[in-house]
Write a structure and sequence with these properties.
six-stranded parallel beta sheet; alpha/beta; about 30% helix
């Protein structure tokens, strides 16, 4: 039985339009993390980039939704995460990326309490371990912290399947 994981790119649309002039760059974070999940068995990966599309189709909910973002996207992330929860109440809704590090550093991590799990730090090594443990039914902490910076010598090329399925949506990557 496959385990479905969806990367969700939810940004403040008005800021994105002003800063990027309507140009959509690939969410490289999703392709990068997906590459580090490629060795997990029976994993089905999706990318919902809400700048260029809507929520995933009805009837095919994921087991885990992975959100990321920056502070300015807080309202958009919260709004969209709640929409996903309504459609898939049994799924785990997870947040990572710069917003988690920033909120923790500022002593405001409690503003992200709504999420099932929070990732602080690089996810290349912690995310695969988290998904393995989640599938095994292990009890997981609310906050998952990377022990240190990810060694870029261990970086993998972007996930080919996810890239091929979605690259046509974008102007390029940064």
């Amino acid at each position: 039985m496959s385990f479905r994981v969806t990367f969700v790119h939810a940004v403040d649309q008005s800021v994105a339009r002003m800063q990027m002039f309507g140009i959509h760059f690939m969410p490289v974070w999703a392709y990068t993390l997906a590459a580090h999940l490629s060795e997990l068995p029976d994993l089905e990966l999706r990318l919902d980039d809400l700048r260029v599309g809507e929520l995933e189709p009805e009837g095919s909910p994921s087991d885990v939704y992975l959100f990321t973002g920056i502070n300015q996207d807080y309202e958009a992330i919260m709004r969209e995460a709640k929409r996903y929860r309504e459609r898939a109440p049994k799924a785990k809704i997870v947040l990572g990326g710069p917003i988690c590090w920033s909120y923790e550093t500022a002593g405001r991590i409690d503003k992200l309490e709504w999420f099932d799990h929070l990732f602080v730090g690089d996810g290349e090594e912690t995310l695969p371990a988290f998904l393995r443990d989640l599938r095994a039914g292990k009890t997981l902490p609310k906050i998952i912290r990377a022990p240190g910076r990810f060694n870029l010598e261990k970086a993998k090329p972007m996930h080919d399947g996810l890239l091929r399925a979605t690259v046509g949506r974008y102007y390029g990557g940064v």
